[in-house]
Structures are given as C-alpha cells and as structure tokens.
Amino acid sequence: MATPQTPFEAVLHAARDVTRLDSALDAEMLGAALLGSVYAVAETDRETAVREFVTGFLAATARRRSAAATTIRAVFATLVPDAEGAARVRPGAYAPGWAAQLGRVRLTGTWAYGDVYGDQTSYLATFAYDDDVEGGPEHALVALVDHNIGITKDVFVGGPAGRIVEQAREICTEDEFTWFRTEDPARMHAEVGRHLAVTDQLGELPAQGSLATDRALVGARLAVLPGRPGAPGDEEVAPATDEERTRLVRGFLGSPEAARLGLDAVTDAELPSLHFCLGLLLDHAASFPDADPMRWSPTVAELFLLDWVHRRAVLDMDDAAMLPRVLRGWVAYAARQRGLPAPAAHRTDEAIEEMIPEFARLYSTGERRSPATAAVAQLMADGVDPDDPAALDAWIEANRHRLTDDPA
C-alpha cells in the first residue's frame, strides 16, 4: 500500500479496522487516541486545533463511501460535535450495529477525592450506554486537577467503572491524609472544564498519563454533565485585597501559633522583617490560580521556601533568619483555621523544619535568584539606596557590563 500523502489519509489508514471493533466505546476510544496525536503536537489552543482538524477531515472525506471511512467520520463527529459539518454526519449503510450507540450515554454517578491539603483533587464520573451490548460496558472518567499549577494534569477513560470507584474509595479510607465524597456533577463539570481550558493552552503537556489520547473523549463525556465548562467552582479563590491582607495578618499575630513562636512580641528592630515575611507569604499565595492564603502543604511550603522566595525576593540576613519561623507559625495557624487533622499539620511542620538547611544554603549561594533579584541584591550589597535616583543611576552606569553581559 502507498504511504498516506496527507494527515487525513494517515488517519483513514490508522482507522481502517474500526468496523471490526466490538462496541461504540471501543470506537470512541480509538477515535480519541487518533485525535490525541493532533492534540499533542499543537503548540497552543489544542482544543481548537483538534476541532479544526476534524472540520478538515470531514470535508476531505465527504465523498468516501467505505464502511471504515463513514464509521470513523461518525466517531469524530460524536467526539467533536462543534466541528463544522459534524451535525450532518451519519453512519453509512454498512456501518456496524454499534454505530447507532455512539455518544448515547447517561451519567450514573459522580465523586471527588483528594489530599486534605488541597494540592490535588481527582474527579470521577461513571457513564452507561443506552444499549450496553452495542454501546459497551459502564465506564469511568477520572480527571486529576492540580491546584498548585492550576491545570487538569491528567485524564483517563476506562473501566470497569465499579472497580475504579471502589478502588478510589478504599485507598482514601485507608489513608488519613485523603478524603472521598459524592460530588455535584455541575461542580465537577465546572472545575475540570476550567482547569482543562488552561491545560489546552500549554506549550508543553505533562510528560506522563493519558491526557492527549483521552482528551477528546473526556470533552464528550463532560458535555453530558449538567452545567457548563469553565464556570466558577467552589474552590476558586481570588487574591486577597489589601484590607483582607491586613485582617489576615492581625488575626495571625493574635493567634496562639504566633505566640508559641514569639512572633506576637518581636522587638522594634525585628518588626520590619516580620511584616516583610508575612507579605511574602501572602504574595506567594496570590501567585496561585486558586489564591487561598490558608492553603499550605509540604509541597506548597517547598515551592515557597526553596524556589519562589529566592526568585522573587531580596532578603537581608534578618529576613532570612525570620522567614522559616514565620512560615511555620503561619502554616500552623492556617491548618487550624481550615480544620486540618493534627497529623497533617504536623507533617507540614516537620517538612518545613527539614527544609531549613537547604533554604539557608540557597540564600547564601544565591543560585536560584532571577537576574532581576540578583541585580537588586548586588545593589543592596554595594550600599546603594534604591530610593535615591542619582545613586541608582550611577550604580547602573558603573555596573552596566555586569547587567548586560551574556554569561553564555
């Protein structure tokens, strides 16, 4: 056989045995996998890239009459119903009996589970075909939302549905740091859709998982859920306003957690560092898509203490000495405010304590400073007042070679 000359011909060739599949579910999974290659190679706006590909495929194959061609056209039209021409596609006369069941599923249950810290939430929904013989067995959709990076990090469609639900329930029952609950389907639609829209714009996809191969089928199944994709979810938190930041700081300084670490009675000389460090904690929280200043975990603490603060802030020695203590106090206070189990709060505190030597090393070496932060740090080390325009201009002129030279 000649090598396919176009992407459309290549897809037709890859789908040549589609009519030999046993069910509509098998066909939809094959179709999603084929479209996954389009999704994976798109540089941005991946959902649009898939829709445009299906539009082009339907136009290019409109005159094809083979059973395989008409069947895969019907599969693609089911998976991407907003593609131009999809509404006019019908299975051909020689399509398998299961073709009539494509996309004809109903929702049978929705759940959510995740860690108590709020780092990640997995959403789980199960679906059944109107005809479970021709359509296929009840199956599950699982979508993992990572709240630290603000994306739907992975998706999966498969079965058996009952086993997947029970396995998730059992794992969470046995792990005190996780939870499992029945979920509102509209909320699942909103949360997965909102974060999946961000994933679709990524220049590079997460390296592992079935995100690309299952993305089109996930979109089709989400459309069965009530609500709309991208609608605000219960966990969406906007950055704190200045008034809210002041209220949060006052609440913390009056807390037993602050008193336990002596942060309620610092000296006048320490006060600027205390408030600077508290501001850094709130700024870091505001950098997350879900900007909740009370959401801390071992992972979030590590992102802050060993990465973000070195790239975004210039600390003097007093600040560096103060920051781990402020972080430990704030995290303990936040854990109590959120009602985290004591073992979960203790785990985060232990993790922070273990990070302190590495934090001190990174502070001393400056190896994770951004170029801008490194420049400001050098300016301060040279004794230049950033608020003195003349001194600042003179320093920049004297150090222009250092600021502009390409280290490569």
Structure in words:
With 408 residues, this protein is an alpha+beta fold. It folds into four domains: 7-101, no CATH class; 105-222; 242-369, no CATH class; 372-404, no CATH class. The protein has helices at residues 7-14, 24-41, 46-60, 67-79, 161-174, 185-199, 211-222, 242-253, 256-260, 271-286, 298-312, 317-338, 342-365, 371-381, 389-398, 400-404; strands at residues 105-115, 120-129, 139-146, 151-158, 178-182. Strands 4-3-2-1-5 form a five-stranded antiparallel beta sheet, sandwiched between helices. A hairpin with a 4-residue loop joins strand 1 and strand 2. Helix 2 crosses helix 7 and helix 12 (317-338) runs antiparallel to helix 13. The mean pLDDT is 90.
The 3D shape can be described as elongated
Which parts are unreliable, with pLDDT below 50 for 5 consecutive residues or more? none
> How do the strands of the widest beta sheet line up side by side?
4-3-2-1-5
SSE pattern, N- to C-terminal: HHHHEEEEHEHHHHHHHHHHH
Fraction of residues in helix = 40-55%
Domain tally: 4
Structural class: alpha+beta
Mean pLDDT: 90
Q: Total number of helical segments?
A: 16
What is Rg? 27 Å
Largest β sheet strand count, sense and barrel closure: 5 strands, antiparallel
Total beta-strand segments? 5
* End-to-end CA span: 50 Å
How large a portion of the residues is in β-strands, by DSSP E? 5-15%
In short:
This protein has 408 residues and is α+β, with helices and mostly antiparallel strands. It contains 16 helices and five strands.
